[in-house]
Amino acid sequence: MLRLFLISLLVLLAACTRPQTTGFSTLDPEASVQSVFIATQRTPGQRGQIFGQDRARKLNFARADISIPPDHELGRVERGSGLVDTSRHFAPVGLATMQSPAALSAAIKASRVDDAEPLMIFVHGYNNTLEDAVFRVAQIQEDFGLGNPALLFSWPSAGDPLGYAYDRDSVLFARSDLSRLIGDLQDRGHDEILILAHSMGGYLVMEALRQLSLSGDRHRVAAIDGVVLMSPDIDPDVFRRQAEEIGTLPRPFIIMTSQKDRVLNLSSLLVGRKERLGRIRSADELEGLDVTVLDFSLFEPGESFGHMIPVSSPEAIAFLRRLARGLTVARGDFSRYVLLGEKQRSGLPVTN
To answer: 30-345 belongs to which CATH class?
Structure first.
């Protein structure tokens, strides 16, 4: 068991090694640029970074412009170190800070080009720097052809593969600010919000929605247009209790899982071999909850050791883009990836 743990830890450490960007070359004229709005609890000006890993007592706001190389491959975040070449790598080519939630809201509204598209809030997972997260959001915007910039909620992850316990504490540190941010955006006219959360970010989102409900703001939860938890690093029993205390979940509420997720396999070892929500084998554990579970185990793992298949596997991205255009387009494929419980598989009625 110890040997398995050490091998798994080494795999994770290798997966989490990241190049350090110190600057960028002249912007390649054929590169595309994606703008990402940022709300973060990271402290500004830390170790030469715009935002570091230390916890701030208030939210800071910004907009980052990220260049995407001309030969970008679907699902990849092409990284470089030092002075990066924008013809080959993702690079931050502009950043503007904002002083208030009102300024953030106004900038988001001014950037919208597709009024039918909801504002997507992306919440990253464990072991992420702000650069990791903002590059990933830019990749998602590029590969899924999103018309409007997304908003990244970047909580103070340590950005360290050995910082798992610190990151779980940071989730609790961040939940009040995320719930307040959701309410503030709704009050400022952002009526359509879609939340996409990855890994431990799913735990943060559930805690924020639970806090809204318990504080008497269930109407704010009901106003959310949808929630997607990708590879959620949550104990299934904890998730059920969170969902019950939230009450009526936003619809749709989608959970994306995969048996190829080796990072969640390590996470289960770190918490005493307890199964994680992102690796459940049956929907029986979620019986009675109004959620849809999509199993991405049939797709190739892509980057990050199977931990981000829905946004890193070219085949999964193509499937989800078809799905986004309407279930009738992908109805045959869709049923292959829905994870069912025993009663559903046997054709018996089940409360959803």
So the answer is: alpha beta
